[in-house]
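Human: Can I borrow your eye for a moment on a structure tokenisation matter? Separate attempts, laid side by side, tell us more than any discussion would. Could you pick a protein and write out its sequence and tokenised fold? No explanation is needed for now; the record alone will do.

Assistant:
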Amino acid sequence: MSRVLIAGESWVTHSTHIKGMDTFTTSSYEVGVEQLRRALEGRGHEVRHLPAHLVPMEFPDDERALSQYDVVVVSDIGANSIQLAPGVFERARPGADRLAALRAWVGEGGGLLMIGGYLSFTGFEGKAAYRNTVLHDVLPVELLAEDDRVELPAGAQATVALPGHPALGGLDSAPWPHLLGYNRVLARPGSTTLATVNGDPLVVVGEHGNGRSAAFTSDCSPHWAPTAFCEDWSGYGQIFGGLIEWLAR
């Protein structure tokens, strides 16, 4: 059993409704982690979800706090939310560099997985912004300087390059359900690309110091990961379970 921290994968939607002369607003809170949580817990892993609105306040500050986990998953949460604790951003007080702590923790033997989304890798309009941080050095992929999203409305299937690799959890080269988008990245020299989509890296793994890192460049929930992929397909649990188990050694 591995102890897994998943940071991100939640959001608040605020809508304005206009009906003739009148308007009103509604808001909703949504979570996109449940498919991933179920898949990992189904393989015996202990999962803590840190929602996006709590990341600035509660993301682990140092290697000691990170050491209670075997793997940290960063999914659809930008670099600002991890770096800028309220004391730093709102009160201009120096604080911990949490991305530097995460990099050091991986170097000492931790496991890091980044999953794609609008606020992963470089992200929508460049707003995820990991390319400009020290965490870029840890990832097994190199990030683009511009908006890196690739939308695939008609869908595209993954191509498995190394079906026997343990990080794929036993999946063979049988066709995967279609994906509807991903973040475009470049495989870093020395990393291993396990699967591609649309000719670009989809699953990439690598080493960093004594630790390991991995990238899954599509999403773990809609819209890029439709229900046929993340709910109806047994291979979903194999992929993410395999990645977590490989990262945790």
User: Anything to note?
Assistant: The domain at 3-247 is CATH 3.40.50.880 (Rossmann fold). The chain is about 20% helix and 35% strand. The radius of gyration is 18 Å.
